[in-house]
Specification:
The complex is a heterodimer of chains A (336) and B (281). By secondary structure, chain A is an alpha+beta fold. Chain A contains 14 helices and six strands. In chain A, helix 5 packs parallel to helix 7. Chain A is elongated and about 80 Å long. The two termini of chain B are 17 Å apart. The chains are: A alpha+beta (336), B mainly alpha (281).
């Protein structure tokens, strides 16, 4: 029998959370939106109404096409500029071939929604010019959710370097391991910004040499002893100092130049370490594929910044592991 | 464009309608706070609409997106996230929450935020069905007229025992199957844990997250199968790979670390299938 204190949680366990849909009075929303909002309105109420109307238009477009009606050009025009990913994706698909569609597709590559970017890439692949198609080579690889959830621009705390003023985050070239920004400023100006405070900008060969020297120095056991003594003197936990030292060693094994040297469209990349341990190296280069100066900032894994579990949490985790290794007592799930 | 015809409202007709509405409206408007006895009084639900037409594919895909979103949020708590800590500015109810409740509260808030994003389609998240760990039985969460879960005087959500037939009477087959498969997984895990010589505390947040991912994954696999089958009936040619792997946390007797789920059409393909062949059944 479970303790009384757990009863509230027990009842809640394993509940399927589903969306409770809301009925939208489309004509009323249309009227209210027309009276109080414009396309550039940024208030929450206006945004919600816009999305409701776009969702309704998406549904209406599907229904009208199901009945064999051609989608009206005005609806397609709205769809190509829609914020709702479902409507924008549909509009990219059904818009007639031509400059408006390709323009919308290029703009949609910077959508935070992977589903929209996929539809845009499909249009560019089939109708884009050479330059536009080459831009697709800059697309970040990796798994994306299949549902329309917006990719989030990394927060400054995760970025850990100052964002370059006025630079644009490029969703299509960014991923969980790297944030990619573009700016119209010259690479030299961007390099000067990141080299403020005495950081050096390296070429690939200079960087490798510097990392090698750093590795040789870090492997020196006396350095480790020095770090422990320093931590003790400051009243800090020597274990933490050791862990930080080990972490700095691990970064020396990676090659920050690997994804840039000799890659298509990457012109004269320069590498600016964001710290003394070379754990994070910002890369600045002229990107011929996007026609702008690129700033690539490596991102740590999400788990890296998560706090360490407590001793109690570790024990509970061990208990679960033990449970997992018990003999079979029931048949595997059969869809019930 | 599809239009539903409104009934002709001649004066006598209008009167009849008004009388019907007036008689029907106050029949049983239960609102929170209430008691389980009052909330669980059986009422015949309205029959569910169909979901086996091609034009239902976008709706089923939206349901799938939502389930996958919630599943992925619980997965984050297995992979790297820790339950949030109540802030001094939070209300008393939140301050009393333990890690599991705070985790679920966080996921509900994230889900609500997702639903109110451009891709979410509106609405709010709510617990619909559940598994009572005391007896591993199926429970449902009754709602008020606005669709909010009913709560008791202490603010706790009320649950009522239910069964498969009742669930099938409330939801269309694809959705009912998904929900029952989700809860079926919890019921199996719950029974196995009870039989175990070393039962674990399923309400502890790490276990809760792992077992909820198992439930969502089972439901998602079932819904993907329904979508794949319906898509094929609607002219989808299928994909090179019939299935793909979805991670699954192992449990006591189930050592699998992933499970096969059906590959389904992309959202663009679903729009295409819905608009070209929809609603002709």
């Amino acid at each position: 029998m479970l303790p009384i204190a757990q009863c509230v949680l027990v009842l809640a366990l394993g509940s399927s959370i589903r969306a409770q849909g809301e009925k939208v009075d489309v004509p009323a929303v249309q009227k209210k939106y027309a009276a109080s909002c414009t396309a550039s309105s940024t208030s929450d109420a206006c945004k919600q109404m816009r999305w409701q109307l776009e969702s309704a238009l998406h549904g209406d477009l599907l229904l009208s096409m199901e009945n064999g009606d051609a989608p009206p050009p005005s609806a397609i025009e709205v769809g190509l500029n829609a914020e709702t990913p479902q409507l924008r994706t549909l509009a990219l698909q059904i818009a007639p071939q031509g400059p408006a569609r390709i323009k919308a597709a290029v703009a949609s590559l910077d959508s935070p929604y992977a589903t929209v970017r996929e539809a845009a890439a499909a249009v560019i692949r089939s109708e884009g010019d050479d330059g536009q198609r080459r831009m697709l080579d800059r697309q970040a690889s990796g798994n994306r959710p299949e549902y329309p959830v917006a990719d989030a621009q990394p927060e400054p705390a995760r970025l850990k370097v100052k964002p370059y003023p006025g630079a644009t985050y490029r969703y299509f070239a960014s991923g969980p391991e790297q944030a990619y920004f573009s700016t119209a400023d010259a690479p030299d100006k961007v390099v000067a910004f990141y080299a403020q405070g005495g950081q050096k900008a390296y070429s690939a060969s200079e960087l490798k040499q510097a990392m090698k020297s750093r590795a040789t120095s870090a492997m020196d056991q006396s350095k480790m002893i020095q770090l422990i003594q320093e931590a003790q003197r400051k009243g800090q936990d020597p274990t933490q100092a050791m862990m930080a030292w080990q972490k700095s060693l691990s970064s020396l094994g990676s090659d920050p130049t690997r994804n840039f040297e000799g890659k298509q469209g990457v012109v004269s990349p320069r590498y600016i370490p964001a710290d003394d341990t070379f754990s994070r190296v910002v890369v600045v280069f002229r990107d011929d594929l996007t026609g702008a100066t690129a700033i690539a900032v490596p991102l740590p894994p999400l788990a890296a910044d998560a706090p360490m579990p407590t001793g109690d949490e570790v024990m509970k985790s061990v208990a679960r592991q033990q449970f997992m290794h018990q003999p079979t007592i029931d048949t595997p799930p059969a869809g019930d | 464009m599809s239009h539903r015809r409104s009934p002709s409202l001649s004066a006598p007709g209008m009167l009849t309608l008004a009388v019907t509405v007036l008689l029907a409206a106050p029949a049983r408007a239960v609102s929170s706070p209430t008691t389980a006895k009052e909330a669980c009084k059986k009422q015949k639900p309205a029959p569910p609409g169909p979901c086996n037409r091609c034009s239902d594919l976008p709706r089923l895909n939206k349901e799938l997106s939502e389930q996958q979103f919630v599943r992925d949020k619980f997965q984050e708590f297995i992979d790297w996230r820790l339950p949030p800590i109540a802030k001094p500015t939070d209300d008393d109810k939140k301050k009393k929450m333990g890690p599991t409740a705070l985790m679920v509260d966080f996921i509900n808030a994230e889900f609500s935020q997702y639903l109110h994003s451009p891709g979410g389609g509106g609405g709010h998240g709510r617990a619909t069905l559940g598994t009572d760990l005391a007896n591993c039985g199926l429970v449902l969460y009754p709602t008020d007229d606005k669709g909010d879960n009913l709560t008791d005087k202490d603010g706790n959500e009320i649950t009522c025992p239910t069964n498969k037939d009742e669930v099938k009477a409330m939801y269309c087959p694809a959705v009912a199957d998904m929900m029952l498969t989700h809860e079926g997984q919890h019921q199996i895990d719950c029974r196995n844990n009870k039989k175990s010589s070393q039962p674990i505390d399923l309400s502890e947040w790490r276990n809760y997250a792992a077992y909820d991912v198992r439930g969502y994954t089972a439901g998602i696999a079932n819904l993907r199968k329904s979508i794949a089958e319906l898509s094929k009936k609607c002219g989808w040619k299928g994909s090179t790979n019939k299935t793909k792997k979805m991670p699954l946390p192992p449990s006591g007797n189930d050592k699998r670390t992933d499970t096969d789920v059906d590959v389904i059409p992309t959202p663009q393909e679903i729009d295409g299938l819905a608009k070209t062949l929809g609603g002709k059944k």
